[in-house]
């Protein structure tokens, strides 16, 4: 097997035994035992696939997303991107990984500088990486805006002049600016209405196909999971309690916790289907 073939055969991402602990602070909690937000998390993610990580609020989903993107450093474990343990890197060694992995948050308003124009926001990662001239960065920003369905004539608008769905498109364009290989969506569609969710899902599917992207969706939306995921990991109290191919896991759950999550989805779906049928009469 050639070196190139070997690299392509490797998982894009391998998370091994990742644990994250923190201590409560305050007058009465300084000596308390550490709280374990993530407990021995392990999984692999293959190239050009979509993994959905689901669980209730506080289960550890966002902590895991932030650890994978190295916005937080886990207490223990390894995060391999290809063959490289990125937790062992420092300084400029991290730049290729920081380009390759991008995170899109639930509320784009909080992650987009309100003083910047749309074009400035999309091109800012290029400025940070010292890539291209000002004119080249601006041109790339316009091209990315067009790719996510935002016209170039809006390039001088500020974030608050956009709708919620448009701001999420802007955040996606910004994430694409460094040509990433993995994008992590941390509840990125949960604040959108159904119509905007559908449009963004179509956009993400097109981008994944055209750019050979790999996705992680951090979500509690089981209807979204059933539509986009190749694999599902169920997280509960900082541990992955089930992980498998999406069709099989949607059909059958081994743990009571996962069954409760999916039963809630089934009940909601039945209610929505009944309401839709009633509206058609």
Account of the 3D structure:
The chain has 281 residues and is of the alpha/beta class. The strands form 2 sheets. It has a 6-stranded mixed β-sheet, sandwiched between helices. Strands 2-1-4-5 form a 4-stranded antiparallel β-sheet, with helices on one face. Helix 5 (118-128) packs across helix 6, helix 5 (118-128) runs parallel beside helix 7 (164-176) and helix 6 crosses helix 7 (164-176). A hairpin with a 2-residue loop joins strand 4 (76-81) and strand 5 (84-85). Helices cover 42% and strands 22% of the residues.
Low-confidence segments, ≥5 residues, pLDDT <50? 266-278
* Shape, per Cα inertia axes: globular
CATH architectural category? 3-Layer(aba) Sandwich
- Count of individual domains: 1
Tag the structure with descriptive keywords.
single chain; 281 residues; alpha/beta; Rossmann fold; 6-stranded mixed beta sheet; 4-stranded antiparallel beta sheet; globular
Please give a quick description of this structure:
It is built from 11 helices and 10 strands.
Summarize the topology.
Layout: H1 3-9, E1 13-22, E2 35-45, E3 50-54, H2 61-68, E4 76-81, E5 84-85, H3 95-100, E6 101-104, H4 108-111, H5 118-128, H6 134-147, H7 164-176, E7 182-186, H8 194-211, E8 214-219, H9 222-228, E9 231-236, E10 239-245, H10 246-251, H11 256-280
Parallel strand pairs: 3-8, 3-9, 6-7, 7-8
Antiparallel strand pairs: 1-2, 1-4, 4-5, 9-10
